[in-house]
Amino acid sequence: MKRMKKSKFLQFLLWGLLLAGVVSCSGVVPGNNATVPAPVVELPSLQFPSSVSVDTNQLSGAPSQPQLALINIGDSLDSDIDRIQVASQFFLNFVDLSVLAPLAPLRIPRGTNVTTFEDAIVINTRVANIKIDFAPYQYDASGTGLNCSGNTAGLPICYRIWIDDVPTLAGLFLAIPKDDNPGIGQFKGLPLDDRLEGSVGSLYDHLDPAAISTEVFTAVNGFRELGHGLLDAITTQDVTFTTINFSFLENQNTTRDVARYRDDQNFISISQESTNPGILNYIAACGDLLTRLVIDSNICVNAGIDVTGIDFVDFATPADVTLPADFPVVPPFQDSPFHSQ
Predict the structure, then answer these.
(1) Closest of 68, 56, 64 to residue 216, by C-alpha
(2) What's this model's pTM, rounded to 2 decimal places?
(3) Is residue 199 part of a domain?
(4) What are phi and psi of 319, to 5 degrees?
(5) How far apart are alpha carbons 94 and 223 in whole angstroms?
(6) Is 305 domain-assigned?
(7) How far apart are CA 95 and CA 195, in angstroms?
């Protein structure tokens, strides 16, 4: 079967995966030693999650085989599983490494009087100034964010981030992140790593470890190339069911996949739809993750992972990644008395 042309977007995906090796030195540069006002309410410090990943490692490590022209029992799903694995890791790495990694070391004081924050962070190898304003604002057209607390003590907590006084990221915490749990939140804007062009957005809910989900939106090349990925992992009776659902729009070509598997068996159910002639269209093919060959679809049905009837996620839109209109070009404060604890 023909392989897809290596487009700018695929190169972008692969570059995103390589971030894992180049954004590893993120950390906080100690702030100044000026006296920091004590919070009115003594609470554990506020922090950004270090990761909102969903484990997809079960898809890797199988042998490589050629893709056949038709999807029948015994045919190969190798290139399809590879694409699902690469896409899922791209989405997760984009968020974890280009956005969260530089922010995660911050320890922000919590209190009703903490309405701003300022410090220095390392992005890749560059030291940058970060300013955060916690005032309520309109995050989207529906008015999300207008009911925020305006400080770091009460939920929801809104934030708008400037890196070196450049508007960069807008978001909300709906549940407080902890070292072992990212909580619930959302954000959109620009990757902090300025070597990566484009925009990003994410909604995540990891509060219940037995039902986690991460949704990621990406846009590159002047919004001509849009990605939308939704990954969730549901655990019931000690078995985790993972679903990967994504859509790419690239210069009028579209590719959409949805796949589901469980961690105690080596089967996967896949549906895919594409306008690219190098990708087959089919619904709910059942595959063996060890051989990467098509098997009887009843095996996936009986395993509870059949994806028949699951819709592909919608294509991303510019609104999913664009900074809100309610975002001042210049930070609304010059200096904050609050720095990392």
Answers:
(1) 56
(2) 0.84
(3) yes
(4) -65, -25
(5) 16
(6) yes
(7) 14
Whether residue 167 lies inside any domain: the answer is: no
Q: Is residue 116 part of a domain?
A: no
Tens of pLDDT along the chain (341 residues) come to: 333 344 444 444 544 544 444 333 333 333 333 334 444 446 889 999 999 999 888 886 544 443 433 489 999 999 999 999 999 999 999 999 999 999 999 999 999 999 999 999 999 999 999 999 999 999 999 999 999 999 999 999 999 999 999 999 999 999 999 999 999 999 999 999 877 889 999 999 999 999 999 999 999 998 999 999 999 999 999 999 999 999 999 988 999 999 999 999 999 999 999 999 889 999 999 999 999 999 999 999 999 999 999 999 999 999 999 999 999 999 999 999 999 98
- Residue 135 structure tokens: 């005032």
* 4 φ/ψ angles, rounded to the nearest 5 degrees: -65, 145
The range of the structural domain enclosing residue 282 comes to: 47-102+187-320
Cα–Cα distance for residue pair 166/31, rounded to 1 Å: 20
Total number of domains constituting the chain: 1
CA 129 to chain centre: 24
Q: Which of 87, 84, 197, 201 is CA-nearest to residue 140?
A: 201
The angle, 0 to 180 degrees and rounded to 10, between the axes of the packed helices 78-95 and 8-22 is 60
